[in-house]
Design goal:
The protein has about 325 residues and is mainly alpha-helical. The chain is built from twelve helices and no strands.
Length: about 325
């Protein structure tokens, strides 16, 4: 009798321990997934942005000026900068870009993975590719989350890209001078067009990339595309996403750099009207788009590919026992 009661208590205790252990295991798995996504996203953003930094800087300079853009003029600007300030001056502002891009990309990719999981649970597609609308929604929410948390860093990066190095000595100096001379609110100037631009850009970028991977798996029978295929899918995603949101990107840059270019841009509609009045629709709101069609697909392709391959590598290392369980 006593033995039977003891066994019953032991069984009950074991029943209590198993779900608890299962929950702990699930929690550790989820934590590892978040850390892996943050690291992979940070690396993806850093590699992609560094690769296209000279083109990105040139694009911003044209976006915030009234000078007419052409591929020839862009090349001349890059060449003049190289002759005047040296090769590494083409990466001026890249340190500020890294300070912004690393947390931005880490948050964006990690948020995208979490939103995919949450929407998958909600729509009953756990572990599978989401339907089109939730797929678009996951990307838009991920981009919005990252932009909201890192916006002042984007503002600083834009200022460093368009000013001579004598004006701002480092990233901290930009923050201090803007806060002192223009007020803290200036750090969020251009925030609204940024969010309005991020929603279609991030949404369409992630949607296109995920959709192309899904179609590839269905047509080829291979669950994972080759690296060059990932680059191509990412390039298509970048081309579509950036083309859809480009006018708002121009407006954002004008508002961010108004304090150093002599303009007073107050609202999105006012900024758009002034740009159109002075430069026209195509030459104003779409200035530098052709350069974006070169650098955008390259950057987004590298970013998505780096993220995916880093995730695969980290999973393999974990399976082989090289990371903590």
């Amino acid at each position: 009798m006593g033995s039977g009661v003891h066994d019953q208590h032991a069984a009950l205790n074991q029943g209590e321990v198993l779900p608890r252990a299962s929950k702990q295991s699930e929690g550790l798995k989820q934590t590892r997934s978040v850390i892996n996504s943050l690291f992979s996203g940070a690396l993806a953003g850093a590699v992609a942005k560094t690769a296209v930094a000279p083109l990105d800087r040139t694009k911003i300079i044209f976006q915030v000026s009234s000078a007419r853009f052409s591929a020839k003029e862009a090349y001349r600007l890059i060449y003049r900068t190289y002759l005047k300030d040296g090769f590494f001056s083409l990466w001026r502002g890249n340190s500020a870009t890294m300070v912004r891009v690393i947390p931005y990309a880490a948050i964006q990719f990690c948020a995208h993975e979490q939103y995919k999981r949450l929407l998958g649970d909600y729509y009953g597609f756990q572990g599978k590719v989401l339907p089109p609308l939730p797929r678009l929604l996951a990307g838009s929410m991920a981009g919005t989350t990252a932009a909201m948390l890192t916006y002042p860093l984007d503002m600083v990066r834009a200022r460093m890209a368009v000013t001579p190095k004598e004006m701002y000595s480092n990233i901290l100096h930009v923050f201090v001078r803007i806060s002192r001379e223009e007020g803290l609110k200036t750090l969020y100037r251009g925030f609204t067009p940024t969010i309005l631009g991020v929603v279609p850009y991030a949404g369409l970028s992630f949607f296109t990339y995920e959709t192309l991977k899904k179609l590839h798996a269905e047509r080829s029978g291979r669950p994972q595309p080759y690296s060059y295929e990932r680059l191509a899918f990412g390039a298509c995603a970048g081309l579509i996403g950036q083309s859809a949101s480009y006018p708002l990107d121009v407006v954002r840059r004008r508002m961010q750099t108004a304090g150093v270019t002599g303009h007073t841009y107050g609202t999105i509609s006012g900024t758009m009207r002034e740009i159109v009045a002075e430069e026209g629709v195509i030459r104003g709101l779409y200035k530098g788009l052709s350069m974006n069609w070169v650098k955008g697909p390259i950057a987004v392709g590298i970013s998505f590919t780096t993220f995916d391959l880093t995730q695969i590598l980290l999973r393999k290392l974990h399976e082989m026992g090289y990371t903590s369980r």
